[in-house]
Structures are given as C-alpha cells and as structure tokens.
Design goal:
158 residues; mainly alpha; Four Helix Bundle (Hemerythrin (Met), subunit A)
C-alpha cells in the first residue's frame, strides 16, 4: 500500500504542476521566433533548456535501464549545439522525445516488479528511486528556467 502511494507521488512529481509549472504549460504557445532567443548572452534560450532537459533525461533514464548505455561527454554533450533557427519539425521532435522519455520514466516508477530502493545492478551504487528523483529535480529546475526566460522575453501569460 505505502509502495503504491510512493509510486503515485513519483508520477505526479514527474508530471509537474504541483510545486512547479508542468512541462506543457511551460512551453505552451511560445512564439516560434523566441524559441532560440536568449534574453542576454549569459542566459540559455528556451530551446537550449528544452534540449538540455531532453538529453539529460534520456541519459539518466537509459543509464537506469540499459547496462550498455554510454553517457554523453560532460558538459558539452548535455547541451545543444548553437543554432540560429529552430524550425517547427525540430521543435516538435524535441518536445515529443522529451515527453516519450518522461512517460517511460513514469512507467518505470509504477512498475511493481522493480524495487525502487534497490541498487540498479549494473550501476553498483545508485537506486531506481535516486535516478527517478534526479530526473524530476533536474526537470523542475529547468522548467523554472524556461518560465524565467519567457518572462524576460515578455512571452509569458499573465
């Protein structure tokens, strides 16, 4: 019973919308011309944050489930290469891939065959719970960054 409560809470945390804005809300109706615009040179664009979230989430998820997975180089492999324009298909693919991997993480969270507190066999040091929380924590942080960028670009609903 308590295990199911934990699993339900993990899914809600991954979805967002409780203590932080949900993914769909954070990117909803962003003007295409602002997707890759930086409010200043020191602040990443919405696109850069989205791609960073997608890459990091994929890495953590695959690290958790695939013993043969090889992580990107740190830190350059976790950020997109600069690109002047992000076309609609590229944007849509990034959004869809992020959502697919988040859904897979939610399925991992509710899989009762997995003891969330057990060490992932091929990692020898990390638990499934740690990796799921790491994804949720990282996503929450960067969703906040997306909201800030959109506010600075005056593209956030009031």
């Amino acid at each position: 019973m308590k295990d199911n409560v934990l699993r339900d809470h993990l899914v809600k945390l991954l979805k967002g919308g409780q203590a932080f804005v949900a993914f769909d809300q954070a990117i909803k109706n962003i003007k295409p011309e602002l997707r890759n615009k930086r409010p200043s040179k020191e602040i990443h664009s919405v696109w850069e944050n989205l791609e960073h979230m997608r890459i990091a989430q994929e890495d953590i998820l695959k690290y958790s489930i695939d013993p043969k997975w090889e992580s990107p180089d740190w830190p350059e492999g976790y950020w997109p290469k600069n690109s002047d324009a992000i076309d609609d298909p590229t944007w849509a693919d990034s959004v869809a891939t992020f959502q697919k991997d988040r859904e897979e993480t939610m399925k991992l969270s509710i899989d009762e065959k997995i003891d969330l507190t057990s060490i992932i066999p091929h990692t020898k040091e990390h638990t499934y719970l740690r990796e799921i929380l790491l994804i949720a924590d990282h996503n929450a942080y960067h969703l906040g960054q997306i909201v800030i960028v959109r506010k600075l670009l005056k593209d956030w609903p009031v």
